[in-house]
Amino acid sequence: MVRNIAGLVAALALATGLGAQARAQVISPSGGTTHVHIYNFGAPGGRTPGPGGPVAAPPSGAGRSYWDHNRSVMYLVANGARRRFYYHRPRPGMAEAGARSGSLLFDGVRAGNTYSGIAYVFAGACGAFDYKVDGYVVADRRVVMRGLAPRVDQRTCGVFDYRPDELAFDLL
Questions:
Q1: So what's the pLDDT on residue 60?
Q2: Mind listing the domains of the chain with CATH numbers?
C-alpha cells in the first residue's frame, strides 16, 4: 500500500513538472521509511543534463577578470551586482568531469563584500548539479564561498549525499 501511494506521489510530481524533463525514484529500504526522489532536469534546483554543464554565452572581452580556482583558469563577468564565474581553461580533472571552456561554475550576486548564489558540481556524463553557496571577498583579490555540494552516483546519476565544499578564487 505504501509503495502505491509513493508511486502516486511520484506520478503527480512528474505531471506537474510544467514540461520539464523529470524522473522519479522510489526508495523503500526494508523496514524503513519510503522516500520518493524527484529529479527535474533543465529546471532550476536540479540537474543540468549532458556533459559540459550549464553553458551560457557570456559577453566577450570587456569587463572580464581572470582568476585561479584549483589550478583552473576562470574568468569573472561582473554586471552590476551580478557575478558569474566561467571556466576559461579547466584543469584536466575538471575537463574529465565535463567542464569546458565557457562552462558556468557560479551564478550569483555581490552585496558589499559578500557573494551568494548557485554553484555547480560537474559529474561527467550525468551533467552538472547545482547547490547554494555564499561567502566573502578579501581586498577584491580573493573570493571564498562555501556550501553543501551534492555527491553524485555515476551509475544512476542520482544524488546520494552532500559534502561541505569550498570554492576559492584568486585574482591573476
A1: 56
A2: 2-41 (no CATH), 47-171 (2.40.128)
